Request: fold
Amino acid sequence: MESFWSTVQHGVSSFFETGTQALLGFAFRLVIAFVVWFVCFRLIRWFGNKIVPKMLERSHITHEVHHFLQTAIKILLYVVLFIGIVNILGFQTTSLVAIVGGAAVAIGASLQGSLSNFAGGILLLVFKPFKKGDYIVVGTNEGYVHSVNVLYTNLRTLDNKGITLPNGTLANSNVVNFHAEEERRLDTDFKVAYDQNVAKVRDIVKEAMMKNEYVLKERQFVTVVKELTTDGILVSNRAWIKAKDFWPAYFQMQELVMKAVSDHGIGIANSQIDVHIKGGEKRIVKEVKKD
Reply:
């Protein structure tokens, strides 16, 4: 009987001793975890709000993606800190990492299209093939870039229509940027009849081109015979302008060339169809009467 009670007493004392040690150990780890969380939380906030913005400002990354990258970096650091705190408290982090990884894969599969647009948006914002205000052509869509977001790019057409393009598709498409360079060439083509004096036409068109206020006079501009077609001579006059002035320069050039051609009596080539009728007029009349 005495041995039984001694065994119970020893077991109880062992339990309390072990429990006390475990509790003290957990309390110690809890204090360390709290200190680490408090210090690292403040460091992450300081790094994300002070250091990261300065690093992004010095980089070539466009401002539209600065806020996103700043937030993403802070979230990533918070996740790492959380896993570290869990590890300090003595819990196994392997299962937690596996759960987070599985959730990430499931979310990625369900948001495949959005993630494709997201990746395309990051590429566009980092490499900047175009920027806000540029005039671009993508397939059958064209217009001025109104905004470049992480998922979509918005265009404004010349008649002020809005076009929304997914960045995933846009990043894998052939994009023509008319404002990639500061200057661009303006070509104006028209046809004259074969009986016209080409040298005279060239001089008249050059004089008209000089009157265009958008033409860069210091750059070379020429008028050339571009092609000999079945219905006339295709003449092309080529001048250099500022890329931002393309449309006003284009419309003014069309008007100036038309006026110069009209004032000097230059014959513009017209397409025509010659119809040859066999059998004479009487036969035609008879056929019409049959109908």
Observations:
- DSSP finds eight helices and eight strands in the chain.
